[in-house]
Amino acid sequence: MKTLQTHVLGFPRIGARRELKTALEAFWRGATSEAELEAAGAALRARHWALQAGAGLDMVTVGDFAFYDQVASHIQLFGCEPARFGFDGAATPLTRYFAMARGERSDCCASDHAAPHGSHALDMTKWFDTNYHYLVPEFGADTAFTLAGERLLAEVAEAQALGHRVKASLIGPLTFLWLGSARDSGFDRLSLLEKLLPVYTALLMRLKAQGVEWVQVDEPILGLDLPQEWRNAFEIAYWLLAQSGARIMLATYFSPLEENLGLACRLPVAGLHVDGVRAAHELTSVCDWLAQPKVLSVGIVDGRNIWRTDLDTAIGLLAPLLDKRGELWLAPSCSLLHVPLSLADETALDPEVRSWMAFAAEKLDELATLKAALAGADAPRLAEARAAIASRARSARVHSDAVAARVQALPDGADRRGAPFAARQALQRARFRLPAYPTTTIGSFPQTAAIRAARAAFRRGALPLADYQSAMRAEIAHAVARQEAIGLDVLVHGEAERNDMVEYFGEQLDGFAFTQHGWVQSYGSRCVKPPVLYGDVARARPMTVDWTVHAQGLSARPVKGMLTGPVTILQWSFVRDDQPRALTALQIALAMRDEVADLQAAGIGIIQIDEPALREGLPLRRARWDAYLAWATRAFRITAGAAHDATQIHTHMCYAEFNDILPQIAALDADVITIETSRSDMALLDGFGEFRYPNEIGPGVYDIHSPKVPDTDAIECLLRKAAQVIPAANLWVNPDCGLKTRGWAETEAALANMVAAAKRMRA
Length: 763
Ligand code: GLN
Ligand code: ZN
Prior knowledge:
Blueprint: E1 3-6, H1 19-29, H2 34-54, E2 60-62, H3 70-77, H4 93-102, E3 124-126, E4 133-135, E5 138-139, H5 151-161, E6 166-171, H6 173-179, E7 181-182, H7 193-209, E8 214-218, H8 228-242, E9 247-251, H9 261-266, E10 271-275, H10 283-289, E11 295-301, H11 311-325, E12 327-332, H12 351-355, H13 360-374, H14 382-394, H15 401-408, H16 421-432, H17 449-460, H18 465-486, E13 491-492, H19 503-506, E14 509-513, E15 520-523, E16 526-528, E17 532-539, H20 545-552, E18 559-564, H21 566-571, H22 581-601, E19 606-610, H23 625-640, E20 648-653, H24 662-667, E21 672-675, H25 683-690, E22 696-699, H26 712-725, H27 744-762
Parallel strand pairs: 1-12, 2-6, 5-7, 6-8, 8-9, 9-10, 10-11, 11-12, 13-18, 18-19, 19-20, 20-21, 21-22
Antiparallel strand pairs: 3-4, 14-17, 15-16
Helix pairs in contact: 1-2, 7-8, 11-13, 17-18, 22-23, 26-27
The chain binds glutamine and zinc ion.
The site of glutamine has 13 residues, from loops.
Family: Belongs to the vitamin-B12 independent methionine synthase family.
Function: Catalyzes the transfer of a methyl group from 5-methyltetrahydrofolate to homocysteine resulting in methionine formation.
GO molecular function: 5-methyltetrahydropteroyltriglutamate-homocysteine S-methyltransferase activity
């Protein structure tokens, strides 16, 4: 007798129409009550459980819902809200929750995640290698844990009352501690494990008493390079949790287990979930090592991408596992939080491209079809799935001979500039004759309500193209005039015509498709709608030349052309799974290289290629960093490689830990790099100094995330710090990042002070 069960590790919670965003923002505005917000949450949960049950899943997952972030929910569940918030007894749990997430406001500030007064929000950082951001727990020696939150238990009861068979889900104790930060340096988060485990045990017992058969406990850190103490701690921790009597499905994902495979298989739990997409090669070993009667859950449907599963291949992989074990659970590789909710309303997508895709709801159907097919039952959707896979494999929309030929014929030196940096620098200095400490900005100027309204009207068809274009040209002229008045040395056109730095290019390149509702939660109520890169990438015509030339025509000072780099376009899109990411990056690089060439030919002497996502593409395992960095930096260099020696290539990266990849950043060989440093008080620059970073650098001198206008003294002080670390002749002066989220008044005031500080440095 063979047993197959289907489940998910988590489901998107934002809602098909981003209902959660609407509900949250109304509540934050004060327009709705807590009870109304709770009702909106309950309605979403009920709908998402109904989708899981309706698709035929054997259980629904409870505990994946959160009003802001699942890690923040665990902070409250385990009663370890940082004392610095100083909550008095009167604050409701939700008030405290949003204070942690968004900061405590003593004034009314519309911008999210900033608290001008009161306690600042918890830090946010990326959830493993996804674009989801979680709130970082703060741990110290005095951190205590109690089973404080009743929310999870209440949600379990809610699902049970709706008649569902429930699997509860939790972040595991080791992953929870790993994700936190130590408040005091030298404090070891792992030392808290002893205090944390009894609370987990108590919770597991409560869940069991409530009739929950299975508890999914997520330990994705088993896919990371773990220090030995952390690996050891797993054995003790799970031995203790086993005493609760709960049946634990230990969930791992995002990464192969490698040296932790034996450990994961050995732990005293009732089941193990592994990522069958990113670690398909480990399935046989896991199957051998995982002793019966432990249950193996295979994450066979890609939870990180939007393509249909090749069900025949999946069946070929799963059938022998099922034969060997007799019981198998089928699931997506990881939580479906990282994909959009449903294709049902995507009416504008090209039908052929759409037929190749599966969002969360469609992935549920895939699980049901796989289960039926493996059980030898009727699987009516299998034929349709096969046809879609076949159509995608041979479609002329996907494969372009011209692109393949160009990649084939790429000459060896295509990723190198003509002359070494020193020679280029001399040529560029003679050409641009910029003062010492040249001033510039990162690209965007305020995206005002008027700009957004014009774009919305244009997209609706209410504003003719010619009118839209002249409105944008006027905005560009305004930005150029303001920059001249402020006295900046290298100007930008301001990016008024761009909705988003990736979408703008994707919309003009072959190989990209765009959804209407394909939203994915980034943090809190914020979502992104990544483009879908489905085919070979090519550029039909110039994408930025007209706007840039228009701007250059308005000023005698150099105007910097502004492009998004190949790695960032790749990283912020859903990309093909039918060829290596490296090849997709190379195709994008070639398309962007043509844009560099065209800008240059049109007389644009300075071109910036933004790569804010370069670092976030780093694989989770160190051993794979070099391979990634080699192709990623090459993609950048191929784009930049079209530039003549006298053309100055800039790049820009946002706040990131650069120190461990400085050789590769230097290998980009950009003539100028601008980075975000003001929030670290220039400390981020130390690494560049020690490394003797050879090319020019613009360390950001003020934080653009805050509306506060920095004063000239403060900027000058930062510049003096920078000049101690970097040769003054190589220093540029610029803000941390683009200015699109700011208003004009504060932008002009801030830039005027920045220019004044640069002048003092020259004097
Ligand atoms: N050029 C872009 C801008 O100024 C860069 C944005 C970014 O780094 N994320 O908006
Ligand atoms: Zn930036």
